[in-house]
Amino acid sequence: MNGTVILGSRWTDKWLPGLALGLCLTLATAYGQTLPQQVGDQEIPSLAPIIEQVAPAVVNISVQGSVATNNSPSQDPFFRRFSPPNGRREVQSAGSGVIIDAENGYILTNHHVIDNADEITVSLIDDRTLDATVVGSDAGSDIAVLQVDPDDLLEMPFGDSEGLRVGDFVLAIGNPFRLRHTVTSGIVSGLSRTGINPQGYEDFIQTDASINPGNSGGALINLRGELIGINTAIF
């Protein structure tokens, strides 16, 4: 049994074109869950057509940045408060993102993926690499919006997370361990989960689809190929 739990943010607000904080998303499309019955001449159901349709909208995000360091000899957090940061350390990290507006080059991801970033590079499924800038980011909801050059991009349509039911089939697409466009499947295991981020947004989808480090910011989709959540945390 897979014990991995992935939590994707549920969305109920309307998408605001201004993207002031990159937080409000439209999820108005009707949601339906039907397994494919036939693909071409094959009678065995396959998820391949859905994945082929939406995978180009999922991107790999590479981040180079720096964080403050504290060389205080004390490891006690109380005493380290009195020793100001006295240096910076270079860091590199990777995550995932989803193209949500191809015309304007907007990409949705997690705030923690791009936090402390000095340079952000986005890799597409066709091996193109693009420089990205942060349009808006919010630590409380752990959501960020990036922008890249909008040249020949494919966006992922939004689904209706309010229509989800426990037991619905879902797919997670991302870049765990820099393994690009890895797809896993599962079901919705729970809804309206709380206690995950008590200082911020609290209304999470729980699913048993397997993910690993690097999946953060990637897509949780329904079987219509619609975005219903952003993979955020593993427990």
Q: Keywords for this structure?
A:
6% helix; six-stranded antiparallel barrel; 3 helices; disordered N terminus; Thrombin, subunit H; 2 domains; 12 strands; six-stranded antiparallel β-barrel; mainly beta; single chain; globular; 235 residues
SSE order and pairing:
Blueprint: E1 6-9, H1 48-54, E2 58-69, H2 77-80, E3 87-101, E4 106-109, H3 111-114, E5 117-123, E6 129-138, E7 143-147, E8 169-174, E9 182-193, E10 204-207, E11 219-221, E12 227-234
Antiparallel strand pairs: 1-10, 1-12, 2-3, 2-5, 3-4, 4-7, 5-6, 6-7, 8-9, 8-11, 9-10, 11-12
Descriptive overview:
The chain is mainly beta and about 240 residues long. The protein folds into two domains: about 5-60 and about 155-235, Thrombin, subunit H; about 60-145, Trypsin-like serine proteases (Thrombin, subunit H, Beta Barrel), CATH 2.40.10. The protein has three helices and twelve strands. It has helices at about 50-55, 75-80, 110-115, and strands at about 5-10, 60-70, 85-100, 105-110, 115-125, 130-140, 145, 170-175, 180-195, 205, 220, 225-235. The strands form two sheets. It has a six-stranded antiparallel beta barrel. A six-stranded antiparallel β-barrel has the order 2-3-4-7-6-5. A hairpin with a 4-residue loop joins strand 3 (about 85-100) and strand 4 (about 105-110). Mean pLDDT is about 80; it is low at about 1-5 and about 10-35.
CATH architectural designation of the largest domain:
Beta Barrel
CATH class of the largest domain: Mainly Beta
* Amount of helix: under 10%
Average pLDDT, rounded to a whole number, is 80
> Major β-sheet, in short?
6 strands, antiparallel, barrel
Work out the radius of gyration.
Answer: 19 Å
Distance between the termini: 14 Å
Question: Which residues form runs of ≥5 with pLDDT under 50?
Answer: 1-6, 12-33
The backbone outline, from C-alpha atoms, is globular
Strands of the biggest beta sheet: in what spatial order?
1-10-9-8-11-12
How many helical stretches? 3
The quaternary structure here is single chain
Number of domains: 2
The SS-based structural class is: mainly beta
**How many DSSP E strands?**
12
Determine the CATH topology of the largest domain. Thrombin, subunit H
**What order do the helices and strands follow?**
EHEHEEHEEEEEEEE
The fourth-level CATH homologous superfamily of the largest domain is Trypsin-like serine proteases
Indicate the proportion of strand residues: 35-45%
